[in-house]
Amino acid sequence: MKVEFRLFAGIGVFFVIIGSVYGMVTHWSEPVGPFGLYLSGGVAALIGFYLWETGRKLNARPEDDPMGQISAAEGEYGFFSPHSWWPLAVAASAGVLFLGLAVGWWLAIIGLSLSALATIGWTFEYFRGEHAV
Amino acid sequence: MVAVGTIVWLASELMFFAGLFAMYFTIRSVSPELWQQRTTLLNVPFAAVNTLLLVISSVWCQLGVFKAEQGQPARTGSLLQLQQWGMREWYVLTYIFGSIFVSGQILEYASLVRDGVTISSDAYGSVFYLTTGFHGMHVTGGLIAILLIVGRTFTTRRYTHAQASGAIVTSYYWHFVDVIWIALFSTIYLLK
């Protein structure tokens, strides 16, 4: 994952340099610009660090090999939900909750209870019974 | 896959907080006198202890992650044998420390409101409650996530890889919220 890591680390370094240049040009009298640019560097560094850390744990992947074949990347990729109604329930109950903030607290309380149920439903959907993943 | 998605989402969360920091610094730079008055009301030692609790909770969370990676959800010894603790015990300890942090925040809000700093009192109040309030809401969300992730270990027979990755991404989020607080604490309480 070296290529990905270098890409994001490069973006991070770029933003840190640009943030400093921006600060010097404005004589550090405008704090928002440097702060925003440094944090943009932070975003890239966060992803870069994650890629580096993951790359350290994994062996070279098929996509790291210039001569890699498509068939080398086959196999199990993890568990993916085939379909689920729970995201709809979560969205609808969150809708009721936020409508409640505008309409009245009584509706927000109903929305909060529905949100709690829907969140539990979504989180536990594949983690109960005989066929838990 | 879950981990990649979480990291991308956390990157967007970082930019959300970047907006809050930008707001804080902009308003601070146009009203320095207000800051001089209001920051004297802050109880820095109290907030420092609270910060320390949140940082320590991140350590407990990481110890829980090591247990999750080993595939050990429950403790094998008694409650006093820390070495034998499983993922559940460490996550519950994280939860306790996190909830003390949120309660501390509420105590601090109460004392500031008594001193007349409210969200609508002046620009300082608005900025203070928006930045720390959004962070507090994130911590509360993390607490709910910990409850769900611990609860989930009880409903299945085996502690699978999918369970462990859920616990690991919850820890990513917890560490993220912790780092954001360190930045917020330094800007609000130390820089003044």
Question: What would your notes on this structure say?
Answer:
The complex is a heterodimer of chains A (133) and B (192). By secondary structure, chain A is mainly α. Chain A has two domains: 2-65; 86-127. Helices cover 66% and strands 0% of the residues of chain A. Chain A contains four helices and no strands. The longest helix of chain A is centred in the middle third of the chain and has 26 residues, at 32-57. Chain B has one domain (2-190): Up-down Bundle (Four Helix Bundle (Hemerythrin (Met), subunit A)). The N and C termini of chain B lie far apart (41 Å). The chains are: A mainly alpha (133), B mainly alpha (192). Chains A and B meet through helix 2 and helix 4 of A and helix 1 and helix 5 of B.
Helices of chain B, by number, come to 6
CATH class of chain B: Mainly Alpha
Q: Assembly type of the shown chains?
A: heterodimer
- Kindly provide the radius of gyration of chain A, computed on alpha-carbon positions and rounded to a whole number of angstroms: 23 Å
SS summary, helix count of chain A = 4
CATH architecture of chain B: Up-down Bundle
CATH topology of chain B: Four Helix Bundle (Hemerythrin (Met), subunit A)
Give the overall average pLDDT of chain A. Answer: 91
DSSP strand tally of chain A = 0
Q: How widely separated are the two ends of chain B? A: 41 Å
Shape of chain B: elongated
- The total domain count of chain B is 1
Largest interface, counted with CB-CB under 8 A?
A: A-B, 26 and 29 residues
* H-E string of chain A: HHHH
> Helices and strands of chain B: which structural class?
mainly alpha
Give the tally of structural domains of chain A: 2
* CATH homologous superfamily caption of chain B: Cytochrome c oxidase, subunit III, four-helix bundle
Q: What's the Cα radius of gyration of chain B?
A: 19 Å
Q: pLDDT under 50 segments of chain A (min length 5)?
A: none
Shape of chain A: flat
The fraction of residues assigned to DSSP E strands of chain A is under 5%
